[in-house]
Specification:
This protein has 168 residues and is an alpha+beta fold. The chain has seven helices and seven strands. It is 34% helix and 27% strand. The longest helix is centred in the middle third of the chain and has 16 residues. The relative contact order is 0.15. Bound molecules: coenzyme A (COA).
Length: 168
């Protein structure tokens, strides 16, 4: 039974999104960002809303380059896990990726089994982008992009995470 809906995020969801992320950031599972960063990237987000109108999950798709995007900040409230919320959020983000014209979707995660069941495979090497694109991505100030590139300045964020990729 589906007792939740997936929809694009609204500005009024930011505090709920931050509440979903905070406990996971405390466990170093997700990266915590300033409130302004959530408003600035709001169009990247989808949320899951239960019948009472409560936000019980969120996820974002961040475009990195012409053919590649990243699923980030995918989170289901601990009380709502195992009901298909994460799957529905991920499917919505993959639909958004297709609509945007992206070919591949990257994620950096501890949830290897979950992503593995949804078409993601562990990246064997770092050659997901051409050397020219790598050089262009180095110009980004985004920490998620730095994690994708495995840069030293974000190594503390990536410890223990697995880099995975899905083709659309
Ligand atoms: C990853 C995460 C978002 C999954 O959320 P979720 O809502 O529990 O996901 P689902 O319910 O779709 O799937 C979870 C499990 O429940 C089971 N399940 C799915 N739909 C179900 C349903 N309708 N009824 C019963 N069980 C179901 C599945 O077997 C699934 O198992 P799997 O994880 O081994 O594939 C959640 O665990 C989370 O918030 N993790 C912490 C943050 C994180 O690491 N995010 C990823 C990096 S961005």
């Amino acid at each position: 039974m589906t007792d939740f809906t997936i929809r694009p995020a609204r500005t009024s969801d930011v505090s709920a999104i931050r509440s979903l992320v905070r406990p996971l950031a405390d466990e170093r599972i997700l990266l915590e960002k300033e409130a302004v960063a959530y408003f600035e990237s709001l169009q990247e987000f989808v949320v899951a809303e239960d019948v009472a109108g409560r936000v019980i999950g969120c996820g974002a798709l961040h475009v990195m380059w012409e053919d590649i995007a990243e699923v980030r900040t995918l989170a289901t409230d601990a009380s709502a896990r195992g009901r298909g919320v994460g799957k529905a959020l991920l499917e919505a983000l993959m639909d958004n990726a297709r609509a945007l014209g992206v070919d591949r979707v990257f994620c950096l995660t501890f949830e290897v089994d979950f992503f593995g069941r949804h078409g993601f495979t562990v990246m064997e090497d770092q050659t997901a982008v051409d050397p020219e694109v790598y050089m262009e991505l180095l110009r980004s100030t985004d920490d998620g992009v730095a994690e994708f590139l495995d840069l030293a300045r974000v190594k503390q964020n990536t410890l223990g995470n697995t880099r995975m990729i899905a083709r659309l």
